[in-house]
Design goal:
The protein is an all-alpha fold. The chain is built from 23 helices and 2 strands. The model has no long low-confidence stretch (mean pLDDT 93).
């Protein structure tokens, strides 16, 4: 980062000070690192592979050839609208601040809780996905491991603990690994595409644009039996669920150089590159499949089934290892995102034990307590929710189906507020990454429409319990706010409070050795 001058450093700190916060975290992330942390969480080798059956056991080839670009565009409109706001307000836990500044204490608090709940549960879900990929690739075939709750939780505790430890040791090490992750995902996706194309019996490109209906038994009951149109729409959840997590660029704003420029670029570019490379990889995989009808019957096992049938064992295992490492690094970046959200919210007293959770280690310049608490909560969530079922469905499955709804709600709240706050006293100064009023408002409206679509799709069978969980959470949130938080929670510093904090800011920076 030789181009990061003293003037740039002063500008970054000045922006942070103007919002009432100290430079306690260390700016060690380049523009590429900021991109890589979001690109690593999106990780097309994680969601794109682990959730592949939503497409192959749904509308078949067209769910990839046509559905993937459509779903990626939905994520893209959120990313563009959020990028506009992130350039104006580049702080850790960005969405929480946006929701507060563009709205009020309540909308900020609500945004924080939706985002935090989504991040903790998605960390658990990502590492559970890594566990099942490990079991399918190496655990059962080579080590004879059986899928039990104990095996799953021990595996999760080990890999999540490793991710937390790396984060604990400083953003420098974390950034190096997420940078490596970015290159690894690029290389592995291209290698997988090349291997799939080389292993294909023929190139039936038309299947990428052929609509089928594999709902019900024809698709291994991944989706309940429904109409062809509806099963195609449900298949959009594959790209929508995969292309998320780009809010990590905002969460790491205070550790990124030239944040007002770098963060919005990292957010948008992570979505675009994931969409492109994911499309190449998944289209190649669909072309490799010997028979789409047989593939659909495999249900959730379609990836391993096709790789076993078509790819040389040694090449297959090399790919599996690269994918497994990428998935672990995806979890590593997610721990970074979770911990910065916990840190930022606690810094303003938004959580129990906020003082401890907002503390930054002078040695490592990381929010150590926030890192470990977020990681432990993710493991406890998976453990507890795996032991309890509603009917025949584990609570874990039900809650995970809500995870992306919660995350996209946390995206939609500040975007909607920004739609109405543009040009008012709440938002009268734009950042250097500026779409202009008309373009931002277009993407804001598209984001609201997309949120409605995501909610409708996300609560359909077999995820119909997600509706009750979401409504229940909203009711509980209202009760907590009006019963307790409305009187206690002050929100981020605004107006005169910023000026009163300057002495505290200087003391906080001195405590961690910031000069």
């Amino acid at each position: 980062m030789s181009d990061y001058s003293d003037s740039d450093k002063k500008q970054d700190m000045s922006v942070l000070h103007s919002m009432g916060y100290a430079q306690e975290l260390e700016r060690r992330m380049s523009q590429f690192s900021n991109f890589a942390v979001s690109f690593s969480i999106i990780c097309i080798l994680s969601g794109g592979i682990n959730s592949l059956a939503q497409a192959t056991a749904g509308a078949g080839g067209a769910a990839i050839g046509i559905g993937w670009p459509l779903g990626c565009f939905i994520s893209f409109v959120f990313a563009v609208a959020m990028a506009q706001i992130s350039s104006a307000y580049p702080t850790a836990g960005g969405l929480y601040h946006w929701g507060s500044i563009l709205g009020n204490r309540f909308t900020g608090w609500l945004t924080a809780w939706f985002n935090l709940l989504g991040l903790v549960t998605v960390l658990g879900a990502i590492n559970v996905g890594t566990y099942y990929f490990f079991m399918g690739s190496f655990g059962t075939p080579y080590f004879g491991l059986a899928d039990t709750t104990l095996t799953r939780i021990v595996f999760l505790a080990i890999i999540t603990g490793g991710q937390a430890l790396v984060n604990h040791m400083g953003i420098g090490l974390t950034a190096k690994l997420t940078d490596f992750s970015g290159y690894l995902i690029f290389a592995t996706a291209i290698l997988l595409a090349v291997v799939c194309l080389a292993a294909a019996d023929s190139y039936d490109v038309a299947r990428l644009f052929t609509f089928s209906n594999y709902s019900g038994e024809a698709g291994g009951n991944v989706w309940p039996e429904t109409s062809g149109t509806w099963v195609f729409l449900l298949g959009l959840l594959l790209p929508i669920y995969t292309i998320t997590g780009y809010d990590a660029s905002a969460h790491t704003s205070e550790e990124t150089v030239k944040a007002a420029h770098s963060v919005p670029r990292g957010m948008v570019s992570s979505v675009l590159w994931s969409a492109l490379f994911g499309y190449i990889m998944l289209c190649s995989f669909v072309l490799m499949i010997p028979n789409m009808d047989d593939a659909a019957k495999q249900g959730w096992n379609v990836f391993f089934w096709a790789m076993e049938a078509q790819v040389h064992p040694v090449i297959k295992d090399i790919l599996y290892l690269a994918i497994l490492v990428s998935q672990w690094l995806c979890g590593l970046a997610t721990v970074t995102s979770v911990s910065r959200m916990i840190f930022a919210f606690s810094r303003d007293g938004g959580l129990p034990a906020s003082k401890a959770l907002a503390k930054v280690s002078p040695t490592y310049r990381t929010p150590v307590a926030a890192i470990w608490v977020g990681s432990i909560l993710a493991v406890l969530f998976v453990w507890g929710s795996s032991l309890v079922s509603i009917g025949e469905t584990p609570v874990y499955t039900i809650v995970v189906s809500c995870t992306v709804i919660f995350l996209f709600f946390s995206f939609a709240i500040p975007i909607t507020l920004g739609l109405f706050a543009w040009g008012t006293s709440k938002w009268d100064k734009m950042g250097p990454w500026n779409l202009g009023e008309s373009m931002f408002k277009l993407f804001a409206v598209l984001s609201i429409i997309a949120m409605v679509l995501i909610f409708i799709l996300g609560v359909q069978p077999p995820n119909d319990w997600a509706l009750y969980i979401t409504v229940g959470f909203l009711v509980l949130t209202g009760a907590v706010w009006f019963g307790f938080e409305s009187r206690r929670f002050r929100g981020p510093p605004i107006g005169d409070e910023v000026a009163r904090r300057q002495a505290e800011i200087a003391a906080a920076e001195k405590a961690v050795g910031q000069v």
